[in-house]
Input
Amino acid sequence: MSDALRAEWTKLRTLASTGWLLVGTVVLTIGASAAVGAATHVSGENGQDPTKLALIGVYLGQSVVVVLAVLTIAEEYGTGMMRVTLAALPRRLVLLGAKVANVVGLTFVAALIALVGCLVVGRFMLPADGLNPDHGYAFVSITHAATLRAATGSVLYLILIALFSVGVATAVRDTGASIGLVLGLLYLPPILAQVVVEPLRQHLLQIAPMSAGLAVQATTNLRAQPIAPWAGLAVLAAWATASILVGGLLLRRRDA
Amino acid sequence: MNTSNTPSMPPNEVGRGSFIPVLRSEWTKFRTVRGWGIGVLAAVLLCVGFTFLVANGNNEGGCTGPPAPGSGPNSPGSNCYVGHPFVPIGPNGEAVADSYSYVHHRLTGNGTVTVQVTSLTGVISTSPASEAPSLTRTKPGLAQWAKAGILLTSSAKQGSPYAAVMATGGHGVNWQYNYTHDQSGLPGAVTNSSPRWLRLTRNGNTLVGYDSTNGTTWLEIGTARLAGLPATVNIGLFVTSPVTFQSTSGGAPTAATATFDHITMNGRATVADWKSTSVGSGPRDYYPTLGASTTRRPDNGVVLSGSGDISLAVNPLAGGDDASSIVWFGLLVALIMIIVIATMFITVEYRRGLIRTTFTATHRRGFVLSTKAIIIGVVAFVVGTLGSAAGVALGEHALKNNGNFIFPANTFTVTRVIFGSGALVGVSAVAVLAIATILRKSASAVTAGIVVFVLPYVIGSIATGGVGTWLFRLTPAAGFDVLGTLPRSTLVNFPQTMANGYYPLAPWAGLAVLCAYAALALAMAFFVLRRRDA
Output
């Protein structure tokens, strides 16, 4: 297992794209939060959730995590490298485990930096938008239990998204199609939910991977959310588990 | 044919290939990948399916009281009904609001009505959204477009042609006709110390509005020519006051009260024989109103209260749907599938090394990119057009069956939405192909393509403050503006936002933004393709 881990780590480390994608995850996540923070202006008490607004960059940053995760496996099929890899590491599930471990580790580091950056952005940019104690909003702060949960939950969210993407890419074996499928499954259901009526809307938001998973970011008005924070993250974990299981099964049974 | 004898093909071009064979070979490549054919077909079907799903999810209906036990909608004895509230249609086929209090007379032939408005005040409903608004729960406040003045209309039917001269809550004196036309007169609010005199004259089909501060020196504000005006029309005083968004984001109904003095109609009218009516405030009328009342005053005076609006209908008050409100999601799904296919159309060749064979067969690399762009552009255009046309046809059928109000749109608008959908998908496909050519990898091209179109909808739904709206102006997602159908009006104080179905750019302007991005990407792709090794 440790040989497999080291082999996969060397492959991932020596790809130019890996570094760029990790930097991209951090920059896009913080940048999107900052852009939304700069463009937001709240007048009067409108029931805003400052923490959620500060962490909004995850909506964009996750797309880079998806790319990173998909590339680690689908690109090997694209170049034919997969056959060499499997000749060297015939135990396919060990190989998948090694890939997953590497992707999870890198995603964790990038996500941690990105989320800390988002919190800093939220603390220093949002008060100027009217989200300050004068308007009845507390400063975004890690000492606030709900905010801590939202931030750590978002790190876990990005890791689960990476797992989900690796599973899909293992099953689909094509970079473009995998990314299209994962991003479609993430982004489309919440948009569809805007235009359908209850109770379909509610159910859609409860089972869709992104809207359920990002319920962990809510810190105010929790009763009005379609799903409880940790329950939502559990839904995403179920998606990730199912995807890894199907990917692993196909990897074992199929010719490369 | 001996190509060396053809003047259009100089000797040094022989063997370098001409455009048509390249087009044919690229079409063969596209056609013979089974997954892409399936993907294209699935894109059309998903577009149609999701459009129908979105349309079918909309139901209109309601109850005018507690439902009678054991009776279904529309059955005798039931207070419930399936179907939308009544939305009047104006003289040019547009949906309008036409609710007001009216004290009027029949006028045959030419004539003039003159009146002095000495006060205009109002109240704003404070009832929560879950309760019916009532005059007992209000606070003082006058809507910007509260209107009081003289109204001439061809009949009492809602949506009739009209012209009116009026004092307003915050826009001074105005001359308006046929729901969309407006000219400003004297500025300033009406008070007891600065009353406004208003006059409306009919001469044949020509109507003229005047205002004055003293009743002796008159200024003409504007004229209207209403074709086909009958010989006998209604003329009289009206008051109305629209839903305001000044204090609540959800909107609150308002009512206005105006005091009119010195009413004269060609010098012969007395208020006693004028009829008072309330137009467009029945239980089935869609515009939220707060009630109406009339009190006579001595010396040809009247105090009139009214609620409603005379203007273009706006969503979501009118609760209407149309082609654009149902088709966009299906289009988004189709677009994502086309983005993946357009990317693979070129990146697969790089990955498999086929691109070197392609460039060996066709030395002119520009031809390869042009033919690929034409093929994917046309295929994507057909996908968008077919998906949109079939989806809209099916979806509008579902909307009608479920009793929804469909915003009237003329043939040109519907055609524009359908072919605009095709253009949106087609131009996007070409842009994504160009990006994929520059990057030579699927990952970034697919991700960029999807995120650019999807994220504005996601961000727009969670962040307030107009971030989403700016994305629909400045990014390639502006292409979706081509779907906009709801007419905007500056005569309605209303959040005409994305959430309510109002796109931020004019249809062709939005498409032009997308085309500019596509042209830029294509130019860069041609440039790097010529300079780079394959």
